[in-house]
Amino acid sequence: MLINTGKYQSLVSVVIPTYNRCYYLKQAIDSAIKQTYQNIEIIVSDNCSIDDTQEIVESFPDPRIKYWQHNENIGMIANQLHALKMARGKYVASLHDDDIWECDFLAKLVPILEKDDNLVIAFCDQLIINSEGIIDTIATERYSRIYQRSLLEEATYKPFIELGLINKSIPTAAACVIRRDFIDWDKIPTEVGGMWDLYLTYLCCIDDYGAFYLPQRLAKYREHLYTDTMQSGRRNAEAKIRKAKSEIFCYQQFMEDKKLKVFILISKKNI
Known about the structure:
It is a single chain. This protein has helices at 22-33, 53-58, 76-86, 105-115, 137-146, 161-166, 196-205, 228-235, 237-256, 261-270; strands at residues 12-18, 40-46, 65-69, 91-94, 100-101, 119-129, 155-157, 176-179, 210-222. It is an alpha/beta fold. The chain has a single domain (12-270), classed as Spore Coat Polysaccharide Biosynthesis Protein SpsA, Chain A. The chain is globular. The N and C termini lie far apart (50 Å). InterPro entries: Glyco_trans_2-like, Glycosyltransf_2, Nucleotide-diphossugar_trans. This is Glycosyltransferase PglI. Residues 13-126 form the Glycosyltransferase 2-like domain.
């Protein structure tokens, strides 16, 4: 059942950067359109795809969709930042072009932020699915344990430096909603590469705001041959090196930030 769009419902920007994934993109857009929270804009930033991406986007007769196609491939991080900077909503949520949201994803996370102006981010857990969309129960439980979301209670976490930067519990790129005006998007350097989501978490947690965790799996993260997770594993050495360089850059920035003294102390204890 859809929630009626009303004048008191804050606008949420759903950003979907994409490149040559028209089959999965269709499912991602469909999950955004079917959100019971209706006051949204859906920003699709196409990094010069050569498949049927444009046709797929135009097949949805929904005026909330804003499609941007670059004339040339500008790189993954530049396309991601372009999509985020196009956002005009009070809140912004990133959706991978190969991922899916449950229909009540926004309906459950946005009200949490609306009730507390001291929250910068609200996030949830996620299901892991394969290339065919089938839920991988073992992987789902494993990731919840690895990122320690299985240990978190439904609560506000403040500060959340350890939660966000050490445990990496917040799936910033796929399963969260962020208060847009709290973030200076120009402060995300291109050197972060594929670790842009970790750097975004850093920007969220360095000021005196909180993060709220909802222990429900409202998003579906897809693992397939060409995801960063798979590419940076044993399958692709170059991708693994690229990810490592991006992560090293991020943590060097974190260690130099005087606001993160607690983070530095915790890191030294873990060495």
